[in-house]
Design a protein that fits this description.
- The chain contains 17 helices and eight strands.
- It has helices at 21-25, 38-52, 70-83, 94-107, 154-157, 162-185, 197-222, 228-248, 252-260, 271-286, 290-303, 319-329, 345-363, 366-372, 386-399, 404-407, 417-426; strands spanning 11-14, 31-36, 58-63, 87-92, 111-115, 127-131, 137-142, 149-153.
- The longest helix is centred in the middle third of the chain and has 26 residues, at 197-222.
- The protein is 53% helix and 10% strand.
- The strands form two sheets. It has a six-stranded parallel sheet. Strands 6-7 form a two-stranded antiparallel sheet.
- The protein starts with 10 loop residues before the first strand and ends with a helix.
- The chain has 427 residues and is of the alpha/beta class.
- A hairpin with a 5-residue loop joins β6 and β7.
Length: 427
């Protein structure tokens, strides 16, 4: 089988680029169906007016009906036929963009993708994820070509809710690990061939960027600042992850996400949040070294990505629910079978349970800890000199790790318990 890589024809990223939308779009058609939510239109109406003013293209705005479903796609195809549109522009989040791509495919017209958030890696791909009208995953629609253009206005994206960009990092987290699994199994990627070296390099660059810049970007966004770290993360979430997942392949993490769509409790969670937990589950199945797993879970915790089933909204966990998720994830048409070993609903269910347990452990779940540790009253008197204090810390850690957050809150400045021990030992 050939090694294949695909990508959008053009990728533009920068502050204020949406004000040039008409300049870009007029090269592809004369009348554009502009798919956007009503709230999204109100938010950037002035920018869009400037963007189309004076250019040889007419926008026809149509509000999105919430789901990338066959019903919605067919409705929009009918609108295009009625209005005589010859190009599609999708403005918004992942489901809007997937819908825009699908409509353009059925109408055989160009499509421009303009994300207003950096919450998924959908914008660059030749793929639309189709859901039922109720929001349950139905199928992947593989398209013959990537978008003609992807336009990222970082000024708009930086003003979006921080949680959305963090969700995008959760989605992008899976890219390298799924590509690695597909490379090992020689699975066919979404591009229709085997993984290229270029795709693996982009996937690894995506992962490294997230690890190095993710927390910095989140803090900057929370402060209302669009920094270089934010710009790098936006590119990682969109371009690197987009090409990386499509030409690198999907495996367990996204299959787990699709499995969670069968539970109503998870419908309020964003795509990338569920994918992040799916990534942890895939890594559990792969039985990666404990240190690597700890680093990934710690990174998720720092960003506020879910690492437990409770954080995904599943407050009452039952074997029946988890088996339903695992069975859906292992569906014949899903990507779990791209893993380099056999997976079954039973092994996936066990991995979900283990991932939840690890998440609780690293979160320092005190209630769970109380079930496994026999606490006894303890009075600690610290000496004045630092050397003796450090010795006391070591004794306390050795007695019961779970007590550290109670008696020594500053210890978290070092990160994880294992890193804290190392730091104290070196001191």
């Amino acid at each position: 089988m050939a090694n294949i890589l695909c990508s959008p024809s053009k990728y533009v990223q920068g502050a204020g680029e949406m004000k040039k939308l008409g300049e870009y779009a007029q090269k592809y058609g004369k009348k554009a169906l502009v798919l956007i939510t009503e709230s999204g239109y109100k938010r950037i109406e002035d920018v869009l007016k400037v963007g189309f003013e004076g250019y040889d293209i007419e926008p026809v705005y149509e509000y999105f009906n919430r789901e990338c479903s066959k019903t919605e796609i067919n409705r929009l195809v009918a609108v295009m036929n009625e209005k005589g549109c010859d190009v599609v522009i999708g403005i918004g989040g992942g489901k809007i963009l997937d819908t825009a791509k699908a409509v353009a495919y059925y109408k055989e017209v160009p499509v421009l993708i303009c994300p207003t958030i950096a919450s998924t890696d959908a914008p660059c791909s030749a793929l639309s994820v189709i859901y039922t009208d109720e929001g349950v995953f139905e199928e992947y629609l593989f398209l013959p070509a990537n978008p003609n253009m992807v336009l990222m206005d970082t000024e708009i994206i930086a003003k979006s809710p921080v949680r959305l960009t963090v969700s995008g990092m959760g989605d992008a987290l899976a890219t390298y690990f799924e590509a690695r699994a597909c490379q090992a199994s020689e699975a066919t990627t979404c591009a229709g061939g085997n993984v290229t070296m270029a795709a693996m390099s982009l996937a690894k660059l995506c992962f490294d960027t997230l690890m190095n810049e993710g927390v910095k970007a989140k803090l900057a966004l929370e402060a209302g600042a669009c920094t270089k770290a934010v710009e790098k993360v936006i590119e990682a979430n969109t371009l690197l992850s987009g090409i990386g997942f499509e030409s690198g392949g999907l495996a367990g993490a996204h299959a787990i996400h699709n499995g969670f769509t069968v539970l109503d409790e998870c419908h309020h969670m964003y795509h990338g949040e569920k994918v992040a937990f799916g990534t942890i589950t895939q890594l559990v199945l792969e039985d990666i070294p404990a240190e690597e797993l700890e680093d990934i879970i710690d990174w998720c915790i720092e960003l506020g990505l879910p690492v437990t089933l409770k954080e995904l909204g599943i407050t009452e966990v039952t074997d029946e629910k988890l088996m339903a998720v695992a069975t859906a994830a292992c569906a014949e048409n899903d990507t779990f079978h791209n893993m380099p070993f056999e997976v079954t609903p039973e092994t996936v269910c066990a991995a979900i349970k283990a991932a939840d347990a690890y998440g609780k452990y690293f979160l320092g779940d005190m209630q769970r800890g109380a079930q496994i540790i026999d606490y006894t009253p303890l009075t600690v008197e610290w000496a004045d000199d630092v050397e003796t204090k450090l010795k006391n810390q070591v004794v306390l850690l050795a007695q019961a790790e779970m007590i550290v957050p109670v008696f020594c809150p500053w210890a978290f400045a070092y990160g994880t318990i294992s890193k804290l021990k190392t730091a104290i030992t070196k001191s």
